[in-house]
Amino acid sequence: MCGVNDDVERRRTSALLGGGTGVVLFGLIALVVHADPHWLRSLDHGLGSGPQRFTADHRWVLNLANFVADVTQPDYLVGLVLVIAGLLALVGHWRAGVWALIVIEASRWGYYLLKAVFERPRPHWAHPAAHAGGWSFPSGHSTAIAALAGIAIVLAIMFSPTRRLRYRVISGALVVAALVGFDRILLGVHYPSDVLGGLLLGASITLLTLAAFDPLPHRDRPHRTTIAP
């Protein structure tokens, strides 16, 4: 039992350190965004203008980017996690399901509130590839996809039968999160700093909730690992 408790504490400490580091990095970006120095505006426009101009000039890129944006809307990701949580409950892993719901909802409300706090306007381009309403920082899509990627990674660690499958899921989740973030820059609806802030926010929330709420089943309780026939 002592070994089990030690493992739990190690996981909790690692998650807390990772989440705390993410919060610090997000806080630094948020402070710079709030100060709005000239160098940040130049950097954001310099990094963002090329991709969005390329998208505006190529219809197939615009269509693909819009498709990615549509299917990764935060509300859709919340619905996906709700389904995952239900399936986890059916196989006896209700704690993992509850944890996943906490992560995605905390991420959604987190970026809602922070957008209202910072009120950063959306990028303005001479020839915009796309338009989006609301405030810009942090990116909601990036926050939500980072949270979903974190959920996928934790569940892969919990349930993957082989190390190879686990690594593939982890790699795939990270790549998808990065691509969705870049998609927001391609469309020109977010600055790179918005996307980076969103990814850090989603990852930080995932780790901090992991530190506060262990998704693993209690060792002293029976649980099913497959759906009963």
TrEMBL record:
<protein>
    <submittedName>
        <fullName>Phosphatase PAP2 family protein</fullName>
    </submittedName>
</protein>
<dbReference type="InterPro" id="IPR036938">
    <property type="entry name" value="PAP2/HPO_sf"/>
</dbReference>
<feature type="transmembrane region" description="Helical">
    <location>
        <begin position="138"/>
        <end position="157"/>
    </location>
</feature>
<feature type="transmembrane region" description="Helical">
    <location>
        <begin position="169"/>
        <end position="189"/>
    </location>
</feature>
<feature type="transmembrane region" description="Helical">
    <location>
        <begin position="15"/>
        <end position="35"/>
    </location>
</feature>
<feature type="domain" description="Phosphatidic acid phosphatase type 2/haloperoxidase">
    <location>
        <begin position="96"/>
        <end position="210"/>
    </location>
</feature>
<keyword id="KW-1133">Transmembrane helix</keyword>
<keyword id="KW-0472">Membrane</keyword>
<dbReference type="Pfam" id="PF01569">
    <property type="entry name" value="PAP2"/>
</dbReference>
<dbReference type="InterPro" id="IPR000326">
    <property type="entry name" value="PAP2/HPO"/>
</dbReference>
<feature type="transmembrane region" description="Helical">
    <location>
        <begin position="195"/>
        <end position="213"/>
    </location>
</feature>
<feature type="transmembrane region" description="Helical">
    <location>
        <begin position="76"/>
        <end position="92"/>
    </location>
</feature>
<keyword id="KW-0812">Transmembrane</keyword>
